[in-house]
Amino acid sequence: MMVADGSAVPSTSMKSRTKRAAKPVQPPPVAVERPPPPPFGTRPSTRPGVPGAYVPPPVPQGPAPTFHVGDKAVHPAHGVGEVTAIEQREIGGTRAMFYILRILDNAMKVMVPTSAATQVGLRSIMSEKEAANILSTMRAREVAVDVQPWSRRFRVYTEMIKSGSPVEIAKVLRDMNRLKFDKDLSFGERRLLDQAKSLLLKELALAKKKSEAEMAEEIRRIFTA
Length: 225
What we know:
This protein has helices at residues 12-17, 117-120, 128-139, 150-162, 166-182, 187-208, 212-224; strands spanning 30-32, 72-75, 79-91, 94-103, 109-113. A hairpin with a 2-residue loop joins strand 3 (79-91) and strand 4. The chain is globular, with a radius of gyration of 24 Å. Among the domains are: 72-120, Beta Barrel (Thrombin, subunit H), CATH 2.40.10.170; 128-224, CarD-like, C-terminal domain (Methane Monooxygenase Hydroxylase, Chain G, domain 1, Up-down Bundle). The longest helix has 22 residues, at 187-208. 39% of the residues lie in helices and 16% in strands. It has a five-stranded mixed sheet. By secondary structure, it is an alpha+beta fold.
C-alpha cells in the first residue's frame, strides 16, 4: 500500500499472516537420587545433648524394598509417585539400576538407585492401620516442639519434615493447624503447613481408599473439632 508521499505502509494482512515461533514445551524436571554418604565421619544436623534438639527416627533396617513397574511408592521429599520404569543408567561414570518415578503431584521424574532405596527413604504406601495411627497423631492435644525462639522451633519442624516419617510430618501438620487458630501464620509457618499437607494427603487418601477431597475434609474436621 502506498501513501501520497510515495512511502510504503506495511500491510496489516501480511502482519497477521506472519507466524510466531512456538514456545518450546519444557519437560518436567528430573531429580537423580544418590545414596547418602556413610555415617562414619559425618556430622549430625542436630545435637541430641542440646535442649530442644531434634533426634530423627531411626532408618529402617533390612533388605531394600522391591517395586515393580506400575507400583506406587513414597519418596520422603516428594511424596507419592508411580514407578514408570526400572532401567540401567550411567551416572557419574557408574552404571546402576534405577527406579524411575513420576511424582503424582507435579509429574517430576525422580531416579532412585534400586540398591539404595532404603537409604534414600523410598517406601511403600502405608497400610490402612498405619493411616489410622497418623490420624490419631493429628488428634492428639500435645505439642511436638516447645522450644524458644521461633527460629529454633522452625528448624526442628523442618527437620521433622525432612525425616520422611509420616508420624513426624503429621505432628508438623497438627501443630501448624493448631497455631493457625491462635494467630495468622507467618510465611515460614504457612510453608511448613502446606509442605506437610502435600506430603501426607495423597498417601492417606490411597491408604484409606478415599478421594483426596474426602480425605482433606476428614483432616479439616479433625482440626476444627
